[in-house]
Specification:
The protein contains 7 helices and 11 strands. The protein has about 230 residues and is an alpha+beta fold. The protein has 2 domains: about 80 residues, Arc Repressor Mutant, subunit A (Orthogonal Bundle); about 120 residues, Jelly Rolls. It has a 6-stranded antiparallel sheet with strand order 1-2-3-10-5-8. The protein has a 3-stranded antiparallel sheet with strand order 7-6-9, with no helix packed on it. About 10% of the residues have low confidence. The protein binds zinc ion. The site of zinc ion (ZN) has 7 residues, from helix 4.
Length: about 230
């Protein structure tokens, strides 16, 4: 499991997050069963979100206490109750390392782990207003992790997903089916979701994205962008 980074000066600005990690993501992350691509996105959200750090700590504490109970077989019917009772006040999840000195990361992003900050240097323009920068998390399982920059007011090509897509806003905002996602917010989509998010007016939007597989684009523009961007 990736550790969550320590909050830094970037996070001390008051940030109101509206969209947090789902329970399923919290459990997967805390139990260490999450792939590296998703883990990086989740860790970056945790960096900015004390509420979700607390939930991860709680899940880790419950998991640890349950494992101890299971080790003392046979499992008593009140094992869960006893495990819960033994948990002291959960500590905050350990904090991942932030980009060293923030020298590498743009000042107007939420603060990010160093490998995310470094990836920005590999940006490649793939369409007017759009750049993509791959993040190598060494997952080797076909999952894709990348930074995506889209200019203000632009609409993303209509697409769906083969598996799960996590999108974390590092800068700016986008609207998806009438819902606004701003800095620090995380969006979770799967193959049941076909969407075409629109970047909010005012400034560019930069997101960190993890996808189980390449996107399934639904229009010609998407096919062109995908061919160049490899996403
Ligand atoms: Zn959160």
């Amino acid at each position: 499991m990736s550790p969550a980074p320590a909050p830094t000066d970037n996070d001390k600005k008051t940030m109101t997050l509206s969209h947090h990690l789902s329970d399923a993501l919290i459990v997967d992350y805390a139990s260490g069963s999450m792939g590296r691509a998703q883990s990086l996105v989740v860790a970056t959200h945790l960096h900015a979100c004390a509420a979700c750090r607390g939930r991860v700590a709680q899940a880790e504490a419950v998991g640890g206490a349950l494992l101890e109970e299971i080790a003392s077989t046979p499992l008593a019917p009140d094992a869960l109750d006893r495990a819960l009772a033994r948990i002291e006040r959960p500590r905050e999840a350990a904090a991942p390392e932030a980009a060293a000195g923030h020298a590498r990361q743009p000042a107007d992003w939420i603060s990010v782990p160093v490998e995310v900050a470094e990836a920005a240097a590999r940006r490649r323009w793939v369409a007017p207003g759009v750049w993509v920068a791959p993040v190598d998390v060494g997952s080797g399982d076909g999952a894709l992790t990348y930074l995506l920059r889209v200019g203000q007011g632009m609409r993303m090509p209509q697409h769906t997903h083969a598996g799960c897509e996590l999108t974390l806003v590092l800068k700016g905002a986008f609207d998806d089916a009438g819902v606004r996602f701003g800095p620090g917010d995380i969006s979770e989509a799967d193959d049941a979701v076909e969407h075409s998010p629109v970047i909010a007016a005012g400034q560019e939007c930069v997101c960190l994205v993890a996808c189980d597989n390449r996107l399934i684009v639904k229009d010609w523009l998407g096919r062109v962008v995908q061919a160049y961007a490899g996403i």
